[in-house]
């Protein structure tokens, strides 16, 4: 997902009996569906795991602007351009909602930014793939935002209050994102043969990277088990991936496009589709920083930060000056 | 609400990137009145060099879809918040004054709606 392979404590989940009274009260509150708020006591592992997870999610929203930003100046019509601009602006907003949630855990914005720019903190593997044609704007909205929605909707019920509230805001905006993407796909799939070819090509390239967004199977992961006990992860990766495929396959049919998987088949017995796993070696390689656009993405973020520095400093200096003038006038 | 105190998070060895610079812009908490007749509600926070800029940023970040008719921005460091440990003595008095709730009183049915 936007936060992939987030490590928690790495220890097994402890039972209530093994916890000291404070931790036990904390866990019981979560079990009862209660929320944890910034000033409440929380185990160190909960705090750290959340900082990693929310931070990764925030960074993904920010870096996620780049593949789509690539097409803003080249959108086919003024209307498409305005829509894409609004969509990308939303993603910036999503990053900010999430940074502000992470900050309530005691990490500073500067620290998170530094960790993104140095490559220490990760963002979703999906944004390390290139957007080669306009049809990719369709595929990204339809598949990438679609996959994000799968994960974000249940997170609205997550145990950490500020995170849950950020997710509520984000989810309200995501369906616009997916729909505008699907709308592009419809237009292309029903356009000239050349346009339809572009739409198919975009689906071919984005299908498996979208499946990777959910992360490898975590059925046996102690990290996931702990995160689920804390309700900062609501579903297993396989569960969400299955749901995504089940929802998306009929949509591809509707578009008259073919999902690039010969094993994709409805399985009556399980009430879902059978499908091929993505290439997990590729996934781990991308996560390590070897994706087709990994270097470019980090360079772009670093350049934006460096080139924006004088603006940030000038605004601060201006604010200081205004404050001083106001004080002098009083 | 965002925690007004900015605590240093451990694990913070500075990356070589960027060199020394001034600290980040101050944090502002944002409150929005969603509709006329409702009170302002906390929606989140953002960083800005000053309150005016925070106001402009709040429009972009929190009201892209007409979510509000009025915005308050408050520097987070100016907020004093109760702590969860105060719960006891802050709210105790409410517990033994149950007569503050209308359901404390039984009004005969003949009296009608009250
Ligand atoms: Fe988003
Ligand atoms: Fe997104
Ligand atoms: Fe989105």
From TrEMBL, chain A:
InterPro entries, A to Z: Aromatic_CoA_ox/epox, Ferritin-like, Ferritin-like_SF, PaaA, PaaA_PaaC
SUPFAM superfamilies per UniProt: Ferritin-like
Superkingdom of origin: Bacteria
Gene Ontology cellular-component terms listed: cytosol
GO biological process, one term: phenylacetate catabolic process
One of the record's GO molecular function terms: phenylacetyl-CoA 1,2-epoxidase activity
Protein name (Swiss-Prot/TrEMBL): Phenylacetate-CoA oxygenase
Record-linked Pfam families: PaaA_PaaC (PF05138)
Region (Disordered): 1-20
Automatic annotation (TrEMBL), chain B:
GO MF annotations in UniProt: phenylacetyl-CoA 1,2-epoxidase activity
EC numbers, comma separated: 1.14.13.149
InterPro entries hit by this protein: PaaB (IPR009359), PaaB_sf (IPR038693)
Keywords, sorted A to Z: Oxidoreductase
Root EC class: oxidoreductase
Region: Disordered, residue numbers: 1-22
Biased composition (Polar residues): 1-10
Signal sequence coordinates: none
Pfam families: PaaB
Source superkingdom: Bacteria
Gene3D superfamilies, per the entry: Phenylacetic acid degradation B
NCBIfam families reported for this sequence: PA_CoA_Oxy2 (TIGR02157)
Name of the protein this chain belongs to: 1,2-phenylacetyl-CoA epoxidase subunit B
Encoding gene per record: paaB
